[in-house]
Amino acid sequence: MGLMEVVSFLFNVTVLWFQAFIAVIFPPARKSLDGQVVLITGAGHGIGRELALEITRAAPRAKLVLWDLNKENNDATASQVKELGGEAYSYACDVSKSSEIHSVAQKVRQDVGEVDVLINNAGILYGGALLDMEEKHIRRTFEVNTLAHFWTAREFLPAMMEKNRGHIVNIASMSAKGGTAFLVDYSASKHAVYGMTEALGEEMRKLGKPGVKTTVVCPMFVNTGLCMFPKDRFGKVLTPEEVATATVDGMLRNEEYVFVPRPLWLSLRITGLLPVRVNQYIKEFGEIGIEPQYQHMKKD
């Protein structure tokens, strides 16, 4: 490597760092979703429902495609979207089954058109010690929380790549950045989602499709009913509305990473410089985690 190449490298790094710094102070303008088809999985309740409502408020002319295992809840979300003046299409879909994803995706293309924005939100959480959990529940955690993202992406990514325009948003968790006791399977599934999203974004750039954007969202504990006994001595449990608002804003600004609450990105960088034992102590002192809830869950 020659001297000029080193100088050029350092110059480019400095420029990119400066651009990132400026973007924190002056965020880019929000893009428009008018006329675009936005698909949300797990739209029947919690974060998914709030995402549908927030997108309708931000882009009333977007076409929302809502997927959920619970048809009644999903239809209720569609009704709320329509009450806000939006356009919504409700489909029952079990995202743990790739064959069902494929068949429902075909129906969406026939009824509404190609999907421009895919938001993988559906998720489950059992919350138990690894040795207490049944194999079928560990498998289902990955089928819903991780593998479903692969199958939905494979369905809708080709059309996005053809147009060199689109967006895939994956809802992960802060447990993706720090494994948590009694969430061994959940933390692993969300860590995989984080890595998948990051890798897919790089893959789009290397394949010459920079118009296809990716965003991974990492919230702290959220009051959706999934996590029954969260613990955080100094923080607070987030509302689905707070997560949805941050997610939609980040997506519309093409942010690759969204942490909720936002200051978490800074704490991640600080803790990354600390010894492992120090981070463990901080987590223990803050009483951050959950109490086991597996015995309270409906075993299906």
TrEMBL record:
GO cellular component, one term: membrane
Compartments it resides in: Membrane
Family per similarity comment: Belongs to the short-chain dehydrogenases/reductases (SDR) family.
Function: Catalyzes the reduction of all-trans-retinal to all-trans-retinol in the presence of NADPH.
Keyword Transmembrane helix: yes
PROSITE patterns: ADH_SHORT (PS00061)
GO molecular function: all-trans-retinol dehydrogenase (NADP+) activity
TM region(s), chain numbering: 6-26
Protein name: Short-chain dehydrogenase/reductase 3
Ketoreductase domain location: 36-221
Keyword Transmembrane: yes
Native organism: Littorina saxatilis
Membrane topology of this protein: Multi-pass membrane protein
InterPro entries: KR_dom (IPR057326), NAD(P)-bd_dom_sf (IPR036291), Sc_DH/Rdtase_CS (IPR020904), SDR_fam (IPR002347)
Entry keywords, A to Z: Lipid metabolism, Membrane, NADP, Oxidoreductase, Transmembrane, Transmembrane helix
SMART domains: PKS_KR (SM00822)
Lineage: Eukaryota, Metazoa, Spiralia, Lophotrochozoa, Mollusca
Gene3D superfamilies: NAD(P)-binding Rossmann-like Domain
Main location: membrane
